[in-house]
Protein: DUF2922 domain-containing protein
Organism: Alicyclobacillus hesperidum
Amino acid sequence: MATKFALHLAFMTDQNKKVRISIPSPKQPVEASLVDTAAQMIVSKGIFAMPQGKIVSALPAEQTQTDTSSVS
């Protein structure tokens, strides 16, 4: 069985749209304080240009875990 992790940073834009930035295979364990710091830096620096508008605030981040196994 293979396990994959992904970190999803969520943001709100100036057009009141929700956008996500996904990071595949983040270093484990994921530290909440570092994720929050990175998200706030993305907001303050305006690093990403999104079609949905300018990122203005960070929303809670999520980590997903996917377990894959062969059926045959």
About this structure: Residues 40 and 51 are 20 Å apart (CA to CA). The longest strand covers residues 55-68. The chain has a mean pLDDT of 95. Residues 2-66 form one domain.
